[in-house]
Amino acid sequence: MGLLTILKKLKHKEREMRLLMLGLDNAGKTTILKKFNGEDVSTISPTLGFNIKTLEHRGFKLNIWDVGGQKSLRSYWRNYFESTDGLVWVVDSADRLRLEDCRKELSALLLEERLAGATLLVFANKQDLPGALSKDAIREVLALDEIKTHHWCIVGCSAMTGENLLTGVDWLLDDIAARIYTAD
Amino acid sequence: MDGVPTKVCPSDAVKIPERVLRRDQERLEELERRKNAKESQTVSEEKIGYFRAAFSAEKANIEDLLSSCTQTDHQKAIKVLEEATNKIQHLQKFLNDSTVFLTQYELRQAQESLQKLQGSIAEKRAEVMPKKKFAFRSRTAGTSLQPAVTPSSTEGQLQTDPGNSVVDSVVEQCGFSNVQNEILIKHSEEIQQRDVLLSHLTNCKVRLYGSPSTLHIKNVRGCQILCGPVSSSVFVDECKDSTLVLACQQLRTHNTTSTQIYLHVTSRAIIEDCHGVSFAPFNWTYHKLDDDFRVSGLDPKRNNWSQVDDFNWLAAGTPSPNWAVIPESERTSSWDTAEPKA
Ligand SMILES: Nc1nc2c(ncn2[C@@H]2O[C@H](COP(=O)(O)OP(=O)(O)OP(=O)(O)O)[C@@H](O)[C@H]2O)c(=O)[nH]1
Ligand SMILES: [Mg+2]
């Protein structure tokens, strides 16, 4: 039995998952994390390093890593790749001027060997803004249909209202759980 | 974080009693948790009932308001639209505060109703306020902010990569783009709780009287931009030789040089790839500023304008050379008159 299989089994027993949240700065990663956990979102500052949150959901223990997305921090992203079960890519759906940047950063991540086994959830965030692009438009701009290397799904959501956060996370957990089972 | 290390050795006999104890403890906790869940379910059913009643009453109220709004009395129509916009905003806040106990279904329904209301208000606005008339509307008596040149509101025009059809074909963008040497004004009817973009402006004076949901400022030079309280973040990129007067939850400043920022920020301001940026406290006032603060949800008493994080200067102890505080004697205190630069 390989080390990876043992690791997966152990995790499976503990029902523990490691999720990594990335995306451009201002996308709403920290706000999503806090809203999901029922915390106050009005005091959130731009993230200078990273936040880790451990929470229980549907009997799973989730270790969620939320890493700052400012340009100067992106080169550190790779320090957090190891053992990631799920990658949550957060997009500011109303920031049209930076969608191209957003596409490039995501496609670079998907080439990373250490993220090869991870499931990808794309949150098209800020759907409450009148100028937000729909999740289908985001899907097209980010060329998600070209992704063949990862299981992926895009969900339109709003960290402000909390809309669809649960839907996204639940899909992610189901997909990861299915993979960990079949590894046995 | 939970500091208990994962146990890797399953055949360790000494650990057994502890495990049994732990399992029992877990069983008790689970019982307790279920009991609590049951209780909180009853509470949240009550809350949902209250939410439904209050939400639909207010929704009906806004619909009535909108249908009472006609083109015949222009001044009144503007007032009514403003009132309706405020009410929608409050309703959104009410919904936001209720999300903890609402089901996903309930939430989606309410969000859809709100979007419909937003839609009908936009229709009404287009109907009763043809754009031109609106742009020239005279402002509160006493101010001398008169446009010297026609203010061009470039809704729908966007600076995007050519060939990117999805991005180009988009819903209207609220704001101003590609303007030189002009005075540009928007009032709350147009910008309230919307995402506003100011891009490619040179030597312009911009006044945004209202509370946008978010504001992007990109590629501006020699501009003076004043904006009412922004609910979430203000994102600034490629700004030069300008003065910004802003209130927001977060300020994110990039690639900006020789710029003064008069700021009210309730969490933090950050700079990245900037130099020569200086800060002072927000000191603009206008007729409805207090109302707009309420709409924005920002705490007017909480201002961290002087705590700026420089992402290119993370050395603790030594202050960043890229930003400074504007000495009190050098701060501008009056913003009323705005003449366009020749
Ligand atoms: N209207 C709206 N604003 C949002 C939403 N999600 C986040 N925001 C706002 O967007 C701004 C940025 O949110 P953050 O959560 O700090 O963004 P981030 O992705 O963590 O940014 P970094 O830490 O710099 O990487 C804040 O002002 C939030 O209030 C949303 O769904 N709707
Ligand atoms: Mg963050």
TrEMBL record, chain A:
Gene Ontology molecular function: any one: GTPase activity
Major subcellular site: cytoplasm
Record-linked PANTHER family: ADP-RIBOSYLATION FACTOR-LIKE PROTEIN 2-RELATED
Family per similarity comment: Belongs to the small GTPase superfamily. Arf family.
InterPro entries reported for this sequence: Arl2 (IPR045873), ARL2/3 (IPR044612), P-loop_NTPase (IPR027417), Small_GTP-bd (IPR005225), Small_GTPase_ARF/SAR (IPR006689)
Subcellular location: Cytoplasm, Cytoskeleton, Microtubule organizing center, Centrosome
Keyword NADP: no
Entry protein name: ADP-ribosylation factor-like protein 2
CDD domains noted in UniProt: Arl2
Entry's Gene Ontology cellular component terms: centrosome
From TrEMBL, chain B:
GO biological process, one term: post-chaperonin tubulin folding pathway
Keywords per UniProt: Acetylation, Chaperone, Coiled coil, Cytoplasm, Phosphoprotein
Chief location category: cytoplasm
InterPro entries assigned: C-CAP_CF_C-like, CAP/MinC_C, CARP_motif, TBCC, TBCC_N, TBCC_N_sf, Tubulin-bd_cofactor_C_dom
Gene3D superfamilies attached to this UniProt entry: 2.160.20.70, Tubulin Binding Cofactor C, N-terminal domain
Record Pfam families: TBCC (PF07986), TBCC_N (PF16752)
Function in brief: Tubulin-folding protein; involved in the final step of the tubulin folding pathway.
Family membership noted in the UniProt record: Belongs to the TBCC family.
Name of the protein in its database record: Tubulin-specific chaperone C
Organism: Hemibagrus wyckioides
Lineage: Eukaryota, Metazoa, Chordata, Craniata, Vertebrata
